[in-house]
Design goal:
Elements lengths: L1 H25 L5 H17 L5 E7 L2 E4 L2 E2 L2 H4 L2 H12 L4 E5 L4 H11 L3 H6 L3 H8 L4 E3 L3 E5 L5 E5 L3 H10 L2 H7 L3 H17 L8 H12 L2 H16 L3 H8 L5 H14 L2 H13 L6 H19 L3 H8 L4 H9 L3 H5 L1 H17 L2 H14 L5 H20 L3 H17 L5 H19 L3 H14 L13 H14 L2 H10 L5 H13 L2 H13 L3 H14 L4 H10 L3 H14 L5 H4 L8 H14 L4 H11 L2 H14 L5 H9 L6 H18 L5 H8 L2 E3 L2 E3 L2 H17 L4
Antiparallel strand pairs: 1-2, 1-4, 2-3, 4-5, 6-7, 8-9
Amino acid sequence: MAQQSLFEHVTNTLVALNTSIRNMRLYPPASAVIVRSLARTHDCLTAVFTHTKALNLAESEKQLLINGSAVSAKALQKPHFKGFVRLLLDFKIHSVSFYQGVDTIELGRFVDMISHTPEEIAAAGGLQKQVAEKNLSHIRVNDKVFVVQSAKGKRIAGASPDAGEILARLKQSDPQTLKALAGNVEWVMDAFGAGLAGLARADAGRQPATFAVIVRTLDRLIADARKKTLGREMAGAVMAADAALWGKILLQDAPGVLGAELLTQVLARLDSQQVRDVSRHLKTMAGDVERAALKRAYERLVDARSRRSAPPATAVRKMTAPVNIKEGIDALLKGRRNAGRDPGLTAALPGAIDKLFAKGSLNLAAALIARLAANLSAEDDTVRRHAAAALAGVCAVLMKRGQLQTLRGLCGALFDWLGSQEQFSEEYGALLDQLRRLAVHLIRRQRFADCRAVLAGLAKELRTDRAAGNVFADAQITSRVRAALAGLAEGESLAWLLGGLEAPRPRMRDDAADCMAALGAAAVGPVLQTLAKTQKRSLRVKLIQVVTAIGPAAAAQLKARIAQGGEWFYLRNLILLLGKTGAAGDQALLIPFLTHEDLRLQREALNSIFNLGGEKREHLLLGLLDTAGDDLKVHVIGMLGALRSTAAIAPLTALLQSKNFASAALREEIHLQSCRALGAIGDLDTLPLLESLAAPRRFLGITRTDPKLSKAAGEAIRRIRRFKPAG
């Protein structure tokens, strides 16, 4: 019964997901139709997660697998199943996994990506690049599919991102079945790919042993004659990745003949530039990986390079010789140039500094960190890069040791170095990731004042004017920084920041607001969602403060939300914010609200139209003198006066002579405002009319005066006469 219920929820999810993809192709991303369909998809997934922690949808031989179980042939003929399989095939997607914690924002990014054509995705850099840029932390694409056939031909299938689960399934299969499976190249590659996927996702310091066990198991099952061929296939899968995965492969034990063949093939395919890339990446792992494994990886790289370029024996000895940490530290502290160029010392420094903290040698640790920070501005580019790589590892050490004050003091030098980089590099990526982790660390500890400076530094990277020829940051820098900020604007970090806006201390609330504002456009969506729901006036004020501080980057999302409509009080806040962050061209969006049934919304729309400025503003206001209701007309008159609009003189004088108003009170207010506006404009030709209003009037022998109007006219007269030219 539980399985049947899960299948029904998955069916509903596919229907909703297909609908969302179709709607995304037809309507603007922020339209109400899209919002509703994404919400429906999210509700369906929530129902799925009551039965399982993850939903994996995979394609294998044109069949659909749901969490490892194949959909029946009959069910596969239904439009929603057939359409989804077609989608996977078109995009060459093997599997899509949804995990608990996914929200509508992340779903929207995924649906937006998949709503494009395969050709558009390819033109934008390919699917994997798009997935990386979308920052899909709870959605995984193209995890390997594990599919086998038992001795009786019955399918044992599943799509699992967990290499540990692959091992469990291998252990559950009988030896004869496994021997038969080992003759199937696709099965072997799927099993290897699952282990590779687990290795790729693991942090440097927590590389899973399951990868080595899978390779060892395959080595035991596969005949020796086939191991060289399969080693080439596996090496091809590894080389399709990046330097991070190549480095992790080099750190492995390479069990058996198959493992040795895999390593040989990978090393043979690395060119000189790739060797340098892997070397730089290994340096960033120095604080997290055992030194013996790191030394073994470097030796493998040296061996690969020597076969290709045959460097002098002295150079090989220099790279392979064990690093004398004490001598290296002494040379570094004395400022010797060669010490900063030594890759072995660079790789060992984070671990050495960690040990210094453990022993209580804080002054020596601080001196080393200061020297590395100084090397970030050295003349030698190699010294600068090595210092950046070492400091990435040092940042991790400082966080682990709770040395947050030291780390905060280091941020200035780190951001200066990041801002000087014209192109993305491994060192840039490593430092950026550590700074993002620092921001998360500070947010979770509610140290918003410290975090504010870190986030401001990250946000500045999106605006940095690069040194060479005023060239702005390259696309990869911009993409990675935006992804880092977007990751902080969701999940647990977002919850802590929103909670900080209601902190007991005013300064803490202000710091949390500044942190959210530093996240830029990434924070706008969550802030506006909270603004729509909250009933607390104090929180609304803070949320409005955040969006105002974000500025023009918030305008696009504000316009989309306004177009969706909503309750008048929510729209009023959105219109207020657009007036603070938008541009003159946004006035057209606000004009329909000038006739809204709620006067408060009319006034807010009018204020925002005025605040947005532009050449058309005066023309819009003049038109409202004829079309707006009397309540709104009062405010229009004041705005024309503030603009000193000479084109408004004729209609204002007509209003002063008119008696056709909804009420006596409104007539009085309009006359008063008209006098004040004419006084602000300062035209001499209006003096006779104003003087007649200021003077007492006689009717049937009785003198009548309107004190308020007389006073307003008198003040306008005095103001105009001050404008009168001399002589």
